[in-house]
Design a protein that fits this description.
By secondary structure, the protein is mainly α. 81% of the residues lie in helices and 0% in strands. The chain has 20 helices and no strands.
């Protein structure tokens, strides 16, 4: 039996195990995203999509951004490989290493959170300088008040991700994907209470500040949700055999190696967050400059929807394969690493590429379904162009995101930093250039276009660099062999999805207009999305077999076999 056959068979078994773990995580992500949509719908119904909504959105986004800036890269990308190594090599199965890391993280995040709450006025001044105008003094104070309520989330975000990665390293992938549902449920309850207490924002309120009572309800409620998703992980840690004991003996036990690797990842996220700060500053200027401007609320909500395939499939796949990629890299098996990463990338692309092709046909009715309620009912059309553009940006982001898992497994964090510098520079340059050329109405679409251009550069650079590294290391399976054919077949399927969706959209929308006129209820928009999506999905399944898209046909065959057995 040849080495190639053995590698193929091992890769097939490896992929089946990855998909099994992915299914658990994807199920949790689907439920989490669905509850997130309800939260997004209620938020838009309560606050609208103008300056009023942007004040809260910016303040509630800051904690996650600052967590990522301060510790997210180290927790997500560096600690998983180190946890896997400590579990394999340390006599206690990595227990002492976990205790030291968790203790250090809790001390660091606690201290930083206190400092950020004190510095809230300066934090908001950096992010939303457009609110410094004299006529926006009340709006600026609302943003600062919200920041003080929301910034404690930095601690809860950091500890949630760290403890979730400890569970992932022990093969418990489900809890980290299911826990955010608690956050969304609390947020839904808070927003429902807000609507009952204060009602949807009027057109005049959508252009102004909040009252102190509104700030307390939204701010404290948002932070309570993040705290809840952390606390949910605690019983799962105990069942996984993790018994936390604080340890302050941080020197001479390998943490230095972890944080030396983390240095480049920290620089990576610093560069990334600099780009995001520029995006927030530009986005906030859109709604501050004009009543019909588009800003961070539209940008972030559209990202929430269009990132669904990425979150359900790509993130779940990446979380499942990172320990395996780290194990392959540690064992010097670069062929296995290349095979695992390549098959995972193809699986993700057969989802996100057809989805991008479908979005131009369903963006407007989907926007009405998700956001066409309450205060936003007259303005849901503002989401359409940003949503269409984000669909294509997600394809580039998906490629880059998965390829980086290979870099992290090989501990090539320094190279990742330089690739991210190119992405951030492209994003900043395009964002500043494009927004300067348009009216406030087009602020969000231009920011999405800049994001897509930046990650197209990133996906190209990261793929080329990783393939060259793997080849130099002796990997025989790294390269373009087989990929060009796959890309051509996938693009053929995407064209079929796009054409069929456009035809179905024209037929369905014309029928709806003839029956009820142009001001159709959102339920008819939901029916339109369902019919066009189902038709395009059927076309994808129909062309997948002749185009030899095995990533699609294997899933379809598995589902069909289970249905027949039932």
């Amino acid at each position: 039996m040849s080495d190639g056959d053995t590698t193929e068979r091992e890769a097939g078994g490896e992929q089946r195990r990855i998909l099994a773990n992915t299914a658990v995580m994807a199920a949790g992500t689907v439920v989490s995203r669905f509850s997130g949509f309800i939260r997004s719908t209620l938020l838009a119904a309560a606050l609208g999509v103008s300056l009023h909504a942007d004040i809260f959105t910016v303040a509630n986004t800051v904690p996650n951004m600052l967590y990522i800036l301060l510790a997210g890269g180290v927790f997500n990308a560096v600690l998983v490989p180190q946890l896997v190594r400590s579990m394999k090599k340390d006599p206690d199965g990595g227990a002492a290493y976990v205790n030291r890391v968790v203790t250090l993280a809790a001390c660091f995040l606690g201290a930083v959170t206190v400092l950020l709450v004190v510095a809230a006025p300066w934090v908001m001044q950096v992010l939303v300088p457009s609110y410094d105008a004299a006529h926006l003094a009340e709006e600026r104070q609302s943003a600062i008040d919200f920041a003080r309520f929301c910034l404690p989330q930095v601690f809860f975000y950091g500890m949630f991700v760290l403890l979730g990665q400890v569970l992932n390293a022990r093969g418990r992938f489900g809890p980290m994907m299911w826990a955010p549902i608690a956050n969304n449920l609390i947020a839904i309850g808070v927003l429902a209470a807000y609507l009952v207490a204060f009602g949807p924002a009027s057109p005049a309120e959508q252009l102004g500040a909040f009252t102190p009572a509104q700030e307390r309800l939204l701010g404290i409620g948002s932070t309570a949700g993040i705290a809840a998703q952390l606390l949910i992980l605690v019983p799962y840690l105990r069942s996984a055999g993790v018994r936390f004991r604080p340890r302050f003996d941080w020197r001479g036990v390998g943490l230095g190696h972890t944080f030396r690797l983390g240095l480049w990842t920290v620089l990576f996220v610093v560069v990334n967050q600099i780009a995001y700060v520029v995006v927030v500053r530009l986005a906030s200027s859109g709604t501050a400059a004009a009543a019909d401007g588009t800003g961070i609320t539209i940008y972030s909500n559209v990202m929430l929807v269009t990132m669904v395939p990425h979150s359900v499939i790509t993130v779940s796949l990446a979380t499942a394969i990172l320990p395996r990629l780290s194990a392959a890299a540690a064992g010097g098996d670069l062929d296995r690493l290349a095979a695992t990463l390549g098959s995972t990338l193809r699986t993700a692309l057969v989802v996100v590429v057809p989805f991008a092709a479908l979005l131009p046909s369903i963006a407007l009715p989907l926007a009405q379904v998700v956001w066409g309620h309450g205060a936003t009912a007259p303005y849901f059309y503002r989401f359409e162009s940003s949503m269409v553009l984000f669909g294509f940006a997600v394809v580039a982001f998906t490629v880059h995101y998965l390829v980086l898992r290979g870099f992290y497994a090989l501990e090539l964090n320094r190279l990742v930093f330089f690739v991210q510098c190119a992405i951030a520079a492209t994003n900043i340059g395009l964002a500043v250039l494009l927004v300067a050329q348009v009216d406030p109405w087009d602020t969000s679409p231009m920011l999405v276009l800049a994001y897509g251009g930046a990650y197209t550069v990133g996906a190209t650079l990261s793929s080329v660099v990783l393939v060259r590294r793997l080849r130099r290391g002796g990997a025989r399976r790294a390269g373009a062999a087989g990929w060009w054919g796959f890309v051509v077949r996938l693009l053929g399927a995407a064209v079929a999805v796009f054409v069929s969706a456009r035809v179905l959209d024209i037929v369905v929308s014309d029928t709806v207009v003839e029956l009820v006129g142009r001001d159709a209820h959102w339920s008819l928009a939901a029916l339109e999305v369902a019919l066009v999506g189902a038709g395009a999905g059927a076309v994808l399944l129909g062309v997948a077999r002749p185009l030899r898209l095995e990533e699609v046909t294997s899933v379809a065959d598995t589902v069909a076999a289970r249905l027949r057995r039932r």
